[in-house]
Specification:
- The structure holds two protein chains of two kinds.
- By secondary structure, chain A is mainly β.
- Chain A is 0% helix and 55% strand.
- Chain A has no helices and eleven strands.
- In chain A, the strands form two sheets. In chain A, strands 2, 4, 5, 6, 9, 10 and 11 form a seven-stranded mixed beta sheet that branches. A four-stranded antiparallel beta sheet of chain A has the order 1-3-8-7, with no helix packed on it.
- Chain A is globular.
- Chain B contains no helices and eleven strands.
- In chain B, strands 2, 4, 5, 9, 10 and 11 form a six-stranded mixed beta sheet that branches. In chain B, strands 1-3-8-7-6 form a five-stranded antiparallel beta sheet, with no helix packed on it.
- In chain B, strand 4 and strand 5 form a beta hairpin.
- Classes of the chains: A mainly beta, B mainly beta.
- At the A-B interface, strand 5, strand 9 and strand 10 of A face strand 4, strand 5, strand 9 and strand 10 of B.
Amino acid sequence: ETGVTQTPRHLVMGMTNKKSLKCEQHLGHNAMYWYKQSAKKPLELMFVYSLEERVENNSVPSRFSPECPNSSHLFLHLHTLQPEDSALYLCASSQDRDRRYSPLHFGNGTRLTVT
Amino acid sequence: EDQVTQSPEALRLQEGESSSLNCSYTVSGLRGLFWYRQDPGKGPEFLFTLYSAGEEKEKERLKATLTKKESFLHITAPKPEDSATYLCAVVGDTGFQKLVFGTGTRLLVSP
């Protein structure tokens, strides 16, 4: 496989469930990201893992918990979500060298619906 | 605060009818401006990076240009397969790896 792969593609969960989104990149990149995309809104950065350092958007609720066991895999653990968390969750990766801004490569996302 | 505004929100063109999409930005110390294409049900696909005013990049029917305040994505003689949402994003010197995206322009090219 090539590129950035996300599973599952679609997820429906109740507000009391716990689920996880998975992302795997096959590009040899050293940084991975979670973005949230809602209708009519700009992409919102949630978390960044770069060279094993985690950077996060302080406005992201604690019901979202990221995990990055190595440079190729990224998870987003979900618990006690709200209906307004329904959105497309995108994973991305990039190759960062000396803080030069390289383009992101995105997966096709997980469409999450919270009922 | 870094900000990106894209216009128009939606654009309908006839096949072969050239036009331009606009991305206006305010950012502290521009480090890069990125253009992406997003098809329905898919993630954004990288098109171009521009780093400094005056820079231009081309790919097939697309050409991106950059000034100190805005970027244009020129589409020459578009085809129906160019229909997509085009996203612009910037990163400044105060937000390492923190791209700020616009809301995009939805382009529809009719045969």
